[in-house]
Amino acid sequence: MGIGKQSDGLAATPPMGWNSWNRFGPFVSEQLVLETADAMVESGMRDAGYRYVVIDDAWQESARTDDGDLTENRWAFPHGMRWLSDAIHDRRLSFGLYTCAGTRSCQGYPASKGHEPRDAKRFAEWGVDFMKVDWCHTQGMNGPATFRTWSDAVRDSGRAMVLSLCEWGRAQPWTWAGTVGHMWRTSSDIADTWASLVETLDRQVELAEFAGPGHWNDPDMLEIGNGGMTDEEYRTHFSLWAILAAPLMAGNDIRAMSDATREILTAPEIIAIDQDPLGVQGRRVRRFGDAEVWARPLAGGSYAVAMLNRGDASANVVVRWDEIVGEKGSRVARVRDLWERADIGERSGYYDRTIAPHACAMLKATFATG
Ligand code: GLA
């Protein structure tokens, strides 16, 4: 059995969890991870669907063991990775860990080139459920061949692990990674700024057809709650990742998040769009000036619609039903506002609304049949 879209049953919907990198960079420790896991339970994040607790780069000791294994920095992880993995599983969460395909990790730690089966096995022994494989220090290496090796290594490790490819879209992974891993980065690292958010968004246009259950485009982890954008911009970030069927990896300090951040990250009707079982990634159906409309079909026949204003002034954004369901589709839709969690009513032909600068409305449109 293969992985990804050849279906090992993992990642039927986009993976959800938390990753240490965006907020904490290389400053990871057992204490941080345990406190975060507890906060995920207490804040309702786990119940909202966030499951993987992923330690990114800089967990490693500066050299392999005498036996040649990757090993954890014991100062930061005094009880070891197996103990931490058990503690995460005790909280009914899953455990994720990082390595890099090259000769060194991006932070300069030992990495996995030439050690793929051994390292996948080591991760499996530690009870890892999600493996992120990065792409620093890979001069001369071939992306598809390297990640095929990883895919085999994960499959042969004896443990079901989500394989998250992080080669930044270099070798157009959407064209080959669907049968290799469960998700692949499509672009370079996101930053906690509006400019980075819209630049990342633009890199996702045209990629929708390559994603589906078991294999997802990954526009990178969330910056929501990290302080560089407004809450309105963070709502837009979340709306767009949901319309894109993107993995939802929170990247903030879960232990100390504001109520506004928690409400964004746990918004039930937005998460339901991201996790829709049909698994069809949204497309940009219209762009006029700073206004954009994105839409994706949902299981059961409704559509999710995002109305985005990229500009610095309020703008009227129009959604035309024929642009979503085609000329022959119904002209009447029942409309629901998914952030307000309120029905708007029936609209014939189109729906329009004034959208604040950098804001994004999220709708569900249900068309009459027959
Ligand atoms: C790369 C990846 C990031 C993160 C860092 C860690 O930049 O793209 O997501 O993993 O490395 O060093």
Task: Summarize the helices and strands and which ones pair or pack.
Layout: E1 16-19, H1 21-24, H2 30-42, H3 45-48, E2 52-55, H4 81-90, E3 94-100, H5 116-125, E4 130-134, H6 143-156, E5 162-165, E6 183-185, H7 194-202, E7 216-218, H8 231-243, E8 248-250, H9 259-265, H10 268-274, E9 283-288, E10 291-297, E11 303-309, E12 315-320, H11 321-325, E13 332-337, E14 342-348, E15 350-355, E16 360-367
Parallel strand pairs: 1-2, 1-8, 2-3, 3-4, 4-5, 5-6, 6-7
Antiparallel strand pairs: 9-10, 10-11, 11-16, 12-15, 13-14, 13-16
Bound molecules: alpha-D-galactopyranose.
Characterise this structure:
The protein is of the alpha/beta class and 370 residues long. The protein has helices spanning 21-24, 30-42, 45-48, 81-90, 116-125, 143-156, 194-202, 231-243, 259-265, 268-274, 321-325, and strands spanning 16-19, 52-55, 94-100, 130-134, 162-165, 183-185, 216-218, 248-250, 283-288, 291-297, 303-309, 315-320, 332-337, 342-348, 350-355, 360-367. The protein has an eight-stranded parallel sheet. The structure holds alpha-D-galactopyranose. Alpha-D-galactopyranose is lined by residues 21, 56-57, 106-107, 134, 166, 189.
